[in-house]
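Hi,

Apologies if this is the wrong queue. I'm a grad student, and the batch job for DUF1569 domain-containing protein from Paenibacillus xylanexedens produced an output file that my downstream script rejects. I'm not sure whether the problem is my script or the file. Here is the sequence I used:
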Amino acid sequence: MKSIFDTINAAEITERMDQLSENSIPEWGTMQVSQMLAHCSAFHDIPLGNAFPPRGLLGRLIGQFAKPMFYNDKPLPHNMSTIPTIIIDDQRQFMAEKEKLEQQINIFQQGASEKFSRHPHPFFGKLTAEQWGKGIYKHLDHHLKQFGV
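Support response: The file is valid. Your script probably expects a header line. Output copied below for reference.
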């Protein structure tokens, strides 16, 4: 499984992001491209220790059993539910959101795995840095595919 901590994988994600434009149309879902970029950044704020969404009851009950879906080789399903605090439904500026996401990817390349927050994923619970790295790559891949790149 690919990880965002691998330089080659991070470069591939960045190259795919460069194929996006403010006019990119999703193949599924309702987010605009700038909202998707902001959503991905908001998700990264959790392992980076900038956001601490609470664990929901369902996550506490079954999250540990579903956890491998976050970092295995199977693609994420279209239109799956997301963490309520990272739903982006307001207007965003494409270039600002793209630059923020690129900066976060650079942070991941600078040893961020050693600095990851110990705060659990709101659904899956405690994750290792390796699991976060794979899950972050998988989440980005999912949303880039959503926009055809």
